[in-house]
Amino acid sequence: MDSSCSHKQRIAVLRLSALGDCINAFGFIGGLKRAHPRHKISWIIDARFASLFYNHDKDPLVPLYPLDFKGQGLRALLGLRQELAHKQFDCLLNLQTSIKASLASTCIHAKVKYGYDADRAREGQRFFIDKAVPSPQNPHVLAGFLAFARAAGLGEVEPYWDFALQDNERDYAKSYFEHDKIFLIAPSSAKAQKNWT
């Protein structure tokens, strides 16, 4: 276990996509916020998914830096570099192994950059990080995220999802699902090769 982030205040989390992984990243960030309420946690995320993490007043549920690779390509990195030019983080938790995420990590000024170990890293992520996070026994993506907290000296973190739902939304959901069991399948993906149908 490292202590690079344990007594520090500023943490950047980098997870751009995909949707399900961003939902898990939000639970991971929520757990970090609950375990370390004084820490300032910011999230660099794909602009396509960022709108899910705003409340009804259009305030972000966690400070967000949306990155529009799809619309702007590599120019998006210039915007991110400018936006973060005067920000300094104590550590970066790079939860994504894509080359896009690794390139984005070069725009983030952090004293220590954590990424995946050799078992999970791909697309050259190891060249963009300072410390590799050991793979957990559990292969689930969320277990992998939680391993980052342990490796960075942030201890055991319990995932927590707080979407700041209003009472009427909770009541509607309870009335809709109260008597029936619901089973949902999302058979399609942004990438055709990952579609089930």
From TrEMBL:
<dbReference type="InterPro" id="IPR002201">
    <property type="entry name" value="Glyco_trans_9"/>
</dbReference>
<keyword id="KW-0808">Transferase</keyword>
<dbReference type="Pfam" id="PF01075">
    <property type="entry name" value="Glyco_transf_9"/>
</dbReference>
<dbReference type="GO" id="GO:0009244">
    <property type="term" value="P:lipopolysaccharide core region biosynthetic process"/>
</dbReference>
<dbReference type="GO" id="GO:0008713">
    <property type="term" value="F:ADP-heptose-lipopolysaccharide heptosyltransferase activity"/>
</dbReference>
<dbReference type="GO" id="GO:0005829">
    <property type="term" value="C:cytosol"/>
</dbReference>
<dbReference type="InterPro" id="IPR051199">
    <property type="entry name" value="LPS_LOS_Heptosyltrfase"/>
</dbReference>
<keyword id="KW-0328">Glycosyltransferase</keyword>
<protein>
    <submittedName>
        <fullName>ADP-heptose--LPS heptosyltransferase I</fullName>
    </submittedName>
</protein>
